[in-house]
Amino acid sequence: MRSVDDAIEVLYKIVGEGLHLLAEKRAGDTISILGPIGQPFRPTQERPNTLLIGGGVGIPPMVFLAESLRHGPWTPMAILGSEIPFPFEFRTSTIPTPWLDDDVVSSMPLLEDCGVPSRLTSLSDFAGCYRGMVTDLADKWLQCTGDDGRAKTEVFACGPTPMLKAVADLARRYDLPCQVALEEFMACGVGGCAGCTVEIKTPDGKAMKRVCVDGPVFDAASVVWN
């Protein structure tokens, strides 16, 4: 979800009866909304090189984050992955990425229009995409930034849990701060049912935290990855 001028834009996937009903709404209809709820990404100005990694349904949050980072001191780079067709038409990027092979040219048009460099990854042989996992391409980017660049880099990620764990491992290997938006099934969405809890390391020991209100964004190093 993001604010667009005087409106709020919500992107959703039609799964289940409730979202089918929401999809039937038309302009002028009235719905009730409670929010915002939970904790957002918190980029720091001390690390302006922001590496955004999104997988599958975790792509939209990275796009929204990239758009907000354009209005500060940050320089975002987005790496987006999917094993099913991406929900947008590819565009050959005009933003130079000298650290990549010449045939890895497909980008997300929305980010390209915003001036944010993006590259797409997949094992499904989509045209112009990097063949590999998002962490493979992220690793290449981090190698090419050098020690000085990595000292100013922070990682943000959203996607399926195995991908997030791999991103957390990559960030730990390079000793980089990393924030992840976790995905969990939420029944109430307001912290009442505790059905979306995950195990988090705190200064007082391990604790169960609710993704809906304590998250969804957590320090990747604090998550107990199963």
What descriptors fit this protein?
single chain; 226 residues; Rossmann fold; Dihydroorotate dehydrogenase B (pyrk subunit), domain 3; 2 domains; 7-stranded mixed beta sheet; 5 helices
TL;DR?
This protein has 226 residues and is an alpha/beta fold.
What does this 3D model show about the protein?
It is a single chain. 35% of the residues are buried. The strands form four sheets. A seven-stranded mixed sheet has the order 8-7-4-3-9-10-13, sandwiched between helices. It folds into two domains: 44-179, Nucleotide-binding domain of ferredoxin-NADP reductase (FNR) module (Rossmann fold, 3-Layer(aba) Sandwich); 182-226, Dihydroorotate dehydrogenase B (pyrk subunit), domain 3. It contains five helices and 13 strands. The radius of gyration is 18 Å and the shape is globular. It is α/β, with parallel strands linked by helices. It has helices at residues 17-23, 59-69, 109-113, 134-150, 161-173; strands spanning 2-4, 7-9, 49-55, 75-81, 91-92, 106-107, 118-122, 130-131, 153-158, 178-181, 197-202, 205-210, 217-219. Strand 11 (197-202) and strand 12 form a beta hairpin. Helix 4 (134-150) packs parallel to helix 5 (161-173). The model has no long low-confidence stretch (mean pLDDT 93).
